[in-house]
Amino acid sequence: MSSLLEGARRLAGRRTDLDARLAGLADAVEATRGRLDDGLVDEAARVVDRVSSRLRLSAEHTVVALAGATGSGKSSTFNRLTGLDLAAVGVRRPTTSWATACVWGSSGAQDLIEWLGVPPRHQVSRDSMLDTGSSDELSGLVLLDLPDHDSTEVSHHLEVERLVRLADLLVWVLDPQKYADAAIHDRFLKPLATHRDVMLVALNHIDEVPEDRRPAMLADLRRLLAGDGLEGVPVVATSAQTGEGIPELRQAIARQVTAKAASRARSGHDVAKAAADLAAANGTTRPPRVDDHNSEELVDAVADAAGVPVVVEAVERASAARARRATGWPVTAWLGRLRPDPLRRLHLDLGSRSRDLVANARSSLPPANQVQRARVGSAIRGLADQVSAGLTPAWVDAVRRASTSRSADLEDRLDHVVGSTQLGVGEVPWWCRAVRFLQWLLLLAAVAGGIWLAVLAVLGYLQVPAPSTPRYGGFPLPTLMLVGGVVLGILLALVCRVLVGIGARARARRARRRLRAAMAQLTDELVVGPVRAELAAYARALAALDRARG
Of the spans 219-228, 321-330, 479-488, which averages the highest pLDDT? Predict the structure, then answer.
């Protein structure tokens, strides 16, 4: 388990809604890793890491970031709020790419400042200043003056984007001449539409706008914000030059600082947005299942490629041949031994000792041809498409990749699985052994009768008086023994031939079931198993995203 998920679950132990949602998002990140777009999953992982880190830091401090364009009066506003001249003011900002931080109530804030990445030379503690301007209502405030988002320095852009993600409350300082600039609306405001309750807008330089035009300008700004999805965001008209509106802005910030809820609210919005983005790519279709019906065609195709029909036919022929040798007329049955055994020709059913010697050898089954391999590939694709119907393209691709991930192993193991399956033809049925015993009795009777008749014939030829010959049913006993042994033996062989055919077909059907069961187990391991794993990951992601979205 990754450290990311472990940290989120430790937070979930606090039993708050946000922590449970954070653990759900972390779970979703792990479940969708390698399935959904890497950039999307990486961003969600960064949210988990960022929110987890923020929740472990001071909850008594609220990070408020002042952001704006060059010349918007952001730094002047920062100085007005702090009551100190900390930030350089001018049309052209300093070339430094670092933010300036002012902390009200520095106790316990050091770890938070380090996490924000503000260098010590750009930090100041408001409580350390010997003046009377500090206010208890701002205790716990960490105020950041960010670089200009429209600066020509790339490092400034990166610093702004980094701290905008970390701040608990965002104050956008806009200029009357550039408040409609698409750069800030498209790059920052629209993407943060879900964060409107942790956002303030200050229309600065209001002193430069004629009083009769101010209501219309503020209404136009609110209209633009509503178009960005930020309807209801507080808008304060300020002038850092004259101090107009600064108390109202300070009070709006103080309310957030006093409530101590901005950090968790911001974190909750980050989690919600990341979960919504993942859910859009993940989809919400009910998790499908793989059943026997889905894999039936695949098992058929794999069995055909493995030569199961050839083996089943060989089982029937071998079973019939072996049983016929056991039940046939002994005089001619031995001729069957001259014909090769169908199973042994395929290097199958070699007996335990021989099988041990050739355990790693391949059978003599013909390799799968192009048509059979194409059928297997089509069946695998059909299975993947069938069970992934309704899923988003990313998960469809993931299921397809999983279904073919072990195709090479499948082809290599088919022959071994066929060779290691017990076909159940090692011994002839018990009744065949009984018939064999009876056949030999009939043959011995016929031989005895023939010898008896031969002795009688020799004695007659030599004109030697012969002993009386027993008779049965009016026929001499030796004749009955000879004729009866031969005729009954042949008739018994013919009757058994029918029974042997029935038994051979039964054994073939049993062998087919065993081979198909082995094929089903193999496809379940190498094809269906990976597909089930992907579907389980999808179900896990779905449940995790439900938790993350609350």
Answer: 219-228
Strand segments, DSSP code E, in 396-538 are 471-472, 475-476
pTM, whole model, 2 decimals?
0.75
Tokens encoding 548 = 């993350």
- Quote the DSSP letter at residue 126: G
Q: Is the pLDDT of residue 45 over 90?
A: yes
Q: H or E segment at 410?
A: helix 407-420
Strands ordered across the beta sheet of 62-68: 123-125, 100-103, 141-145, 62-68, 169-174, 199-203, 235-237
Would you tell me the crossing angle of helices 262-282 and 17-32 to the nearest 10 degrees?
30
60-259: CATH topology is: Rossmann fold (3.40.50)
CA distances from 292 to 288, 400, 413, 512, 523 (A): 13, 18, 21, 17, 11
Q: What are the residue boundaries of the structural domains of the chain, listed by start?
A: 60-259, 292-548
The answer to whether the CB of 140 falls within 8 A of the CB of 62 is: yes
Torsion of CA 47, 53, 59, 64, to 10 degrees: -60
Q: Output the CA angle 166-167-173, nearest 5 degrees.
A: 130
d(CA 236, CA 259): 20
Name the phi and psi angles at 203, rounded to 5: -85, 100
Report the mean per-residue pLDDT for the chain. Answer: 83
CB-side neighbour CA atoms (13 Å) of 105: 17
- Give the CA radius of gyration of the chain: 45
Asked if 152 and 181 touch (Cβ cutoff 8 Å), the reply is no
Nearest alpha-carbon partner for 392 in 545, 550, 190, 193: 545
What DSSP line would sit under 14-77, residue for residue?
A: T--HHHHHHHHHHHHHHHHTTTS-HHHHHHHHHHHHHHHHHHHS-SS-EEEEEEE-TTSSHHHH
**pLDDT value, residue 273:** 93
pLDDT, tens digit (0-9, with 9 covering 90-100), for 166-213: 999 999 999 998 899 888 899 889 999 989 889 999 999 999 999 999
Fill in the amino acid letter for 178: K
